[in-house]
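Why run this: before we spend reagent on co-expression, it is cheaper to look at a predicted model of the complex and decide which construct boundaries make sense. The entries below are exactly what would go into the expression plan.
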Amino acid sequence: MTQPHDPLGALRGAVERRRFLVGVTGGIAAYKTCTLVSRLAQAGAEVTVIMTDAAARFVTPLTFQALSGRPVYTSAWEHVESHDPQHVALATRSDLAVVAPCTMDCLARLASGQTSDVVCLILSAIDRATTPVLLAPSMNAAMWAQPSTQRNMALLQGDGYRFIGPDEGWQACRTVGAGRMSEPEAILGAIADALKAPSRG
Ligand SMILES: Cc1cc2nc3c(=O)[nH]c(=O)nc-3n(C[C@H](O)[C@H](O)[C@H](O)COP(=O)(O)O)c2cc1C
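The model came back. Tokens follow.
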């Protein structure tokens, strides 16, 4: 008897029953993150979405809540338990975190150790020696080419963050160039690869 076709079979093998944090920051590519979250959820992963204020202007928390089937975190001040603050609990129970899209500003905040928004705060509580943190930068070509962005990328690579993209191609500002967020399928591939080799040590 032939088995039913499972288009998510390979992904399921990599992510099923694993716990993921998906950080969303304020870029136009946030619409692609809906597909990313949906695929992970369909493949049996537990997905918790965390969003900056700017991200919530592009896609509503309700959309991610429906796609992930879980609460979406939009503030550092939700579910603050004295014994287990939200940012520590979410960070320590995750197998991998990915930020997609990752804005120019988010790269700068992470590179300088800022924790003023919920995404950077939760990432600050992750030990990258054991839990991979993958960033998918997304910005206009001029923003991507800024010396500050390139400096921050080098710093973050040295600090053990992993990257997927950005790609070259059509941008929302109606030009073609470098800085476009990688497609959800490529990000899923990078997630599967990172899970195979979680430690950078
Ligand atoms: C329509 C629009 C599109 C934007 N797209 C991007 C983008 O693709 N990448 C980026 O780095 N910033 C983009 N920005 C700017 C960010 O939203 C802004 O820097 C914001 O403060 C980022 O906040 P966050 O990193 O906390 O999410 C865009 C702004 C607007 C108004």
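The two ends are 46 Å apart (CA to CA). The mean pLDDT is 92. Bring this page to Monday's planning discussion.
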